[in-house]
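Lab manual, section 2.4: Encoding a predicted structure.

Procedure: take the sequence of the chain (248 residues), apply the prediction step described in section 2.3, and record the output as structure tokens. A sample record is shown.
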Amino acid sequence: MGIDIRGDGRITEVIIDIPPVNALSADDWFALADAIRTAATSSTVTAVILAATGRGFCAGVDLKELQHRTDNAALIAVNRGCFAAFAAVYDCPVPVVAAVHGYCLGGGVGLAGTADIVVAADDATFGLPEVDRGALGAATHLSRLVPHQLMRAMVYTCRTISAQELRNFGSVLEVVPREQLAAAVRRVAGEIAAKDPLIIRRAKESLNGIDPVDLRRSYRYEQGFTYELNLAGVSDRARQSFLDRRRH
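Recorded output:
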């Protein structure tokens, strides 16, 4: 359990396996960042697959870690961990193909929205429940998956959206039955891996260079409001309300 790395020369898989719901602690986010940075260190690697085991791709941040601390150290650590993981996906020198199944929430949207390509199972749903959890963030990444006005509506209402709807927007490349997801994402990654590794690496670098939004700066700006909400005491109440509902 944890963050697993598997490679076969041209393709490296990074797999999130943190039961029960793939909600990541600060240490988990940093471990994921390290794994993604390690995944493409070999010059022969041409694509990285980011996948997960269990019921869903990623439920975001482990709120219990934040709620059990009386200082801001955990909040600072988890925000820095999320920032590091998203940046690792974005800065990965080769394309990252996300294989999304089940729920993709909060930090999961941060990962999927930063990936170069998303392949999803037909049971996948995407959403930012941050407002209900007393936090803000990853709208930067959601805006890479949905149109701007829809992104705003999803942030305000915490509504989710299906993989097929994202396929209609073009932000999800393929939607396949759950049992076919692993094969589909391997096929897409294999198409990339068949290319010249150096050319693919320069292609990734060039595409990052023409992005209209600086993802790091934009996401860091959002995180500042999470700090503010925590200092105001609003976040503690929202997180506790969510945790209490889960226990009933």
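Check your result against the sample. The mean pLDDT is 95.
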